[in-house]
Design a protein that fits this description.
The chain is of the alpha+beta class. Helices cover 60% and strands 15% of the residues.
Length: 176
């Protein structure tokens, strides 16, 4: 039976899981405090939060939240990265930070998104996605293209009439 302090940690993790869109699991062994602070601030700017928790407590919190457990990724000390807003932006920050020279100690293991367990490759694929704003702009552009074509087609006869009248006016001015 967990102690009162552990029970509070589990409740906090369940609350964080409830607010998050995805959770990424990273190994941080070998990162200095300064580097860990740096990655925390980058993730925070991207709309996420890093929480270091015992694997057992996180497993209990995942079960209580109705999410799949991360048994394959539970070896060693793990940091859990909660993505509250744009999942791709948080994944991108983690990937970019881990690829920087001297930050190789941050190893992305996998994650949970919805009811799905994500592998490292799937997290990297998420990181390759454009940001949410870019995706929305692409969808709106795709939806607006047929409307733009329709407006062009409908304005064609009116434009032709105006051009024809303008040419007639020019001819009459030149004749006079």
């Amino acid at each position: 039976m967990p102690t009162k302090a552990k029970e509070q940690n589990i409740e906090q993790l369940v609350e964080m899981l409830g607010r998050s869109e995805a959770v990424f699991i990273c190994e941080y062994r070998g990162l200095t405090v300064k580097k860990m602070t740096d990655v925390r601030s980058r993730v925070r700017k991207a709309g996420g939060e890093i929480k270091v928790a015992k694997n057992t407590l996180m497993r209990i919190a995942l079960e209580r939240a109705g999410l799949p457990t991360v048994d394959p990724y539970e070896q060693g000390p793990n940091a859990y990265v909660f993505a509250y807003g744009d999942v791709a932006a948080v994944a991108k920050e983690l990937r970019d930070y881990s690829k920087e020279k001297g930050n190789e100690a941050l190893v992305i293991k996998g994650g949970v998104m919805g009811k799905d367990l994500l592998s490292k490759d799937q997290v990297m694929a998420l990181a390759d996605l454009p940001s949410r704003e870019v995706l929305i702009a692409q969808v709106v552009g795709t939806m607006a293209a047929p409307l733009r074509g329709l407006v062009t087609v409908l304005s064609g006869p009116a434009r032709g009439l105006v051009t024809c009248l303008s040419q007639i006016k020019d001819k009459k001015e030149n004749a006079a």
